[in-house]
């Protein structure tokens, strides 16, 4: 049975590597399907988020398959460190958090919803603080493992990496019946040169820019950004979801965090992350109480005008239908 499962996975892996463009089209269709069924059936919020979360996890798994080709990991996934395994788990949590929130709300009501949100945000806070304190460089991103840029993976480049990896695997490794890959003794360096460390992954992005060193005020700014969700949740539990105090506290925390982080030289990757955080400040227009008192009327007027335009008149109705549901999801509007 295990050999059969490994054979099926190996066939799927080869198909993913050989057809990255077709794979991207299928993945896009899966995501579009979740938007298409939103509001169509009675249980559509849970069902559409289940499809969306599942499609994101499948895309993530496919990314790992493509990376395994370009990074030449000769001993297999068993060599992953605990930190790398935790990154995978927290990335999956980030992909399914909206589904968990909606499911908790459906089963246990408002109390279950906020309990689930608090637990998820607490776990993510502990994880991000651990990363900041242990690594001390680079800004935390929306996902523990960012999505792979498929544009950099040309089919001929994938085939080149695959051929090199397979050739070296034939020379230095052999496979057990279970599918586990073992390195041969003659594939090891001379005994006086061995360091007993895991093999180094040689990525196709070998000239990656060093990450920003976080210390002093920039470090405090990153900790503030990480602490913001919990501060906002505590303020909401104290003053209510419609109060201006939680929103004002979160906004001031965001502004202060960005200002402190911009006080030091940033790498190009971290500079893009700062730009992303600045753009997310626009999300405050969709957050209560700003949305309830100001933004909603303006958005409704704009969508009403757009509905009168031929050809695109149906689209504003779909956007409005989804936005009314989307605005009440904490993990969409605040995370």
UniProtKB/TrEMBL annotation:
Domain of life: Eukaryota
Signal peptide start and end residues: none
Pfam families: Pex16
GO biological process: peroxisome organization
Keyword Mitochondrion: no
Gene Ontology CC: one annotated term: peroxisomal membrane
Record's subcellular location: Peroxisome membrane
PANTHER family, per database record: PEROXISOMAL MEMBRANE PROTEIN PEX16 (PTHR13299:SF0)
Family indicated by similarity: Belongs to the peroxin-16 family.
Protein name per its UniProtKB record: Peroxisomal membrane protein PEX16
């Amino acid at each position: 049975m295990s050999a059969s499962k490994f054979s099926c996975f190996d066939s799927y892996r080869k198909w993913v590597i050989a057809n990255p463009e077709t794979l991207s089209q299928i993945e896009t269709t899966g995501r579009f399907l979740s938007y298409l069924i939103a509001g169509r059936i009675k249980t559509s919020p849970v069902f559409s988020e289940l499809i969306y979360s599942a499609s994101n996890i499948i895309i993530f798994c496919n990314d790992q398959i493509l990376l395994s080709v370009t990074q030449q990991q000769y001993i297999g996934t068993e060599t992953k460190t605990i930190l790398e395994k935790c990154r995978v788990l927290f990335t999956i949590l980030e992909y399914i958090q909206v589904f968990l929130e909606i499911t908790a709300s459906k089963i246990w009501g408002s109390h279950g919803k906020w309990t689930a949100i608090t637990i998820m945000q607490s776990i993510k806070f502990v994880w991000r603080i651990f990363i900041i304190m242990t690594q001390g460089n680079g800004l935390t991103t929306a996902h523990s493992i960012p999505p792979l840029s498929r544009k950099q993976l040309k089919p001929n480049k994938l085939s080149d990496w695959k051929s090199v990896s397979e050739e070296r695997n034939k020379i230095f490794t052999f496979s057990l019946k279970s599918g586990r890959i073992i390195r041969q003794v003659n594939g090891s360096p001379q005994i006086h040169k061995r360091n007993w460390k895991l093999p180094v992954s040689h990525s196709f992005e070998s000239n990656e820019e060093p990450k920003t060193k976080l210390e002093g005020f920039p470090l405090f700014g990153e900790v503030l950004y990480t602490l913001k969700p919990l501060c906002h949740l505590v303020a909401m539990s104290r003053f209510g979801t419609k109060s201006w105090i939680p929103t004002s506290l979160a906004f001031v925390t965001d502004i202060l965090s960005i200002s402190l982080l911009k006080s030091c030289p940033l790498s190009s990757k971290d500079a893009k992350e700062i730009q992303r955080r600045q753009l997310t400040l626009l999300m405050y227009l969709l957050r209560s109480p700003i949305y309830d008192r100001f933004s909603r009327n303006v958005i409704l007027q704009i969508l009403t005008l757009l509905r009168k335009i031929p050809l695109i008149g149906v689209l504003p109705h779909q956007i409005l239908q989804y936005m009314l549901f989307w605005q009440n999801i904490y993990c969409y509007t605040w995370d």
